[in-house]
């Protein structure tokens, strides 16, 4: 088996052709930074979310879930610092009018406007190629503004959340009280986040609307380092568990100048995308920053009293945060494989069984009514618990190839013999081994195999 790496063009085309990812509003020419999940994309994303929830919530007795609203009180975003500092440096080309992230064009990892201005002097515009045509860089706030209620004035203005964490911090005290949790404990949330990125792109890597899976772990300040290390390792293990290749993942610990001002330590788990190693998962020790600023702005006491040690303090927060789409993209890239079978190229998506968008395909050998009827009965018997696809068009070879390309672990073929022996052929994706199984035993057999 040889490893084949997909280029960006190949990935985008395959994701569309095979029903994973479509450009949003495509019939109107698309909208930059927005992508829809197609029928197999939504299955894959749901399986990713479910796996994350099982691994981060169900497997830890001290982690609970939460679902807060996308729109929150504007004071929350003022307190968190997003209104004043959730900005990216932006620059315009005076010649072609294109707009860019100033730090990306300048090629320096800094938000300092003076430094960027200087560096931009001899850079050429990535669009028109002219040199010395940039405006002075300025800050651009990435939150989408909106209004609550019918009057569009400042008092009613708020934002679509740029991260899910804000809602967790605001409900921290109620969650702690109602679940009677003691430190250390965590609150997990999966949901949409919105960022008006200046230059969205690289397919679904940098979006303006995306799904985050975030965990906020509340810990004693003295134990923050220990838990930071723990969650770093935990996240890496999950990524390996769901099928990403070890050699495509690496840790990038942030130097002090790369960190957010409140973070005591932060790291990215980077994945090797076609455009290089880039952040997939962010993990940070956010100190007592979040609860302190919300305590100050809201006037509510958010400190924690440790009954054993009689200490009173504001908990530190360790935050691992990952975007579903960046992960989905990595899984498509690492899942893709090509091999030669009997002189022909076979394309296979090697998703784990847990993540595969379709678990089983039911394929009658011909469209003859007696086979269709039996095949539909087989579909009925095994469906309802996981995603099963029914397909009776085209040759069986082409249907196998189609299922291989979306990563379906098992194909069930109903042939004319099935009418006599009440058995079907089960074909396994990777080995292509075929096994005859009695229809009566099929449901149990597949459940066992899928959970294996
Ligand atoms: P970047 O430096 O790439 O802009 P970030 O450091 O701003 O990312 P965080 O604020 O740490 O990102 O967000 C946590 C996670 O959310 C990221 O690791 C990433 O997986 C995801 N994420 C952030 N911004 C986007 C985006 N615009 N599109 C898709 N996913 C995103």
Plain-language structure description:
- There is one protein chain.
- With 452 residues, the chain is an alpha+beta fold.
- It folds into three domains: 8-77 and 144-333, Bira Bifunctional Protein, Domain 2 (BirA Bifunctional Protein, domain 2, 2-Layer Sandwich), CATH 3.30.930.10; 87-141, Rubrerythrin, domain 2 (Single Sheet), CATH 2.20.28; 358-450, Rossmann fold, CATH 3.40.50.
- It is 34% helix and 27% strand.
- It is built from 14 helices and 23 strands.
- The strands form seven sheets. It has a seven-stranded mixed sheet with strand order 3-9-10-16-13-12-11, sandwiched between helices.
- Helix 2 (39-58) crosses helix 10 and helix 3 packs across helix 9 (289-298).
- It is globular.
- The two termini are 23 Å apart.
Strand order of the largest sheet: 3-9-10-16-13-12-11
> In percent terms, what proportion of residues is strand?
25-35%
Stretches with pLDDT under 50, minimum 5 residues: none
> How would you describe the shape?
globular
Largest sheet: 7 strands, mixed
CATH class of the largest domain: Alpha Beta
Structural class: alpha+beta
Quickly count the helices: 14
Q: Percent helix among the residues?
A: 25-40%
Count up the domains. Answer: 3
């Amino acid at each position: 088996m040889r490893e084949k790496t997909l280029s960006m063009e190949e990935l985008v085309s395959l994701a569309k052709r095979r029903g994973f990812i479509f450009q949003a509003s495509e019939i109107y020419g698309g909208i930059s930074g927005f992508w829809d999940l197609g029928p197999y994309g939504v299955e894959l994303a749901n399986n990713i979310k479910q796996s994350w929830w099982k691994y981060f919530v169900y497997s830890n007795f001290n982690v609970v879930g939460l679902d807060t609203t996308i729109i929150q009180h504007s004071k929350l975003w003022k307190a968190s610092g997003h209104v004043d500092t959730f900005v990216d440096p932006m620059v315009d080309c005076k010649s072609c009018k294109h707009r860019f992230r100033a730090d990306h064009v300048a090629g320096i990892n800094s938000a300092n406007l003076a430094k960027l201005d200087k560096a931009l002097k001899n850079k050429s515009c990535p669009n028109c190629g002219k040199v010395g045509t940039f405006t002075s860089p300025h800050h651009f706030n990435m939150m989408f503004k909106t209004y609550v209620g019918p009057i569009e004035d400042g008092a009613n203005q708020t934002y679509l959340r740029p991260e899910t964490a804000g809602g967790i911090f605001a409900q921290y005290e109620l969650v702690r009280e109602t679940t009677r949790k003691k430190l250390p404990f965590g609150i997990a949330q999966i949901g949409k986040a919105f960022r008006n990125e200046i230059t969205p792109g690289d397919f679904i890597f940098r979006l303006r609307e995306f799904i985050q899976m975030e965990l906020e772990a509340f810990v004693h300040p003295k134990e923050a380092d220990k838990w930071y290390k723990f969650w770093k390792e935990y996240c890496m293990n999950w990524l390996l568990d769901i099928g990403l290749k070890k050699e495509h993942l690496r840790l990038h610990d942030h130097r002090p100048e790369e960190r957010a001002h409140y973070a005591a330590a932060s790291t990215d788990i980077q994945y090797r995308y076609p455009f290089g190693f880039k952040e997939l998962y962010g993990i940070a020790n956010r100190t007592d920053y979040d609860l302190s600023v919300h305590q100050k702005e809201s006037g509510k006491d958010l400190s924690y009293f440790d009954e054993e040690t009689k200490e009173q303090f504001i908990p530190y927060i360790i935050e691992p945060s990952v975007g579903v789409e960046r992960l989905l993209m990595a899984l498509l890239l690492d899942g893709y494989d090509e091999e030669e079978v009997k002189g022909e190229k076979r394309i296979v998506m090697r998703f784990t069984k847990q993540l595969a968008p379709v678990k089983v395909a039911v394929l009658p050998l011909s469209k003859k009514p007696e086979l269709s009827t039996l095949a539909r009965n087989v579909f009925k018997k095994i469906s309802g618990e996981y995603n099963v696809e029914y397909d009776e068009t085209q040759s069986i070879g082409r249907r196998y190839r189609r299922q291989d390309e979306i990563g379906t672990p098992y194909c069930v073929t109903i042939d004319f013999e099935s009418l006599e022996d009440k058995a079907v052929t089960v074909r396994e994706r990777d080995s292509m081994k075929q096994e005859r199984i009695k229809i009566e035993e099929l449901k149990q057999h597949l459940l066992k195999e899928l959970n294996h």
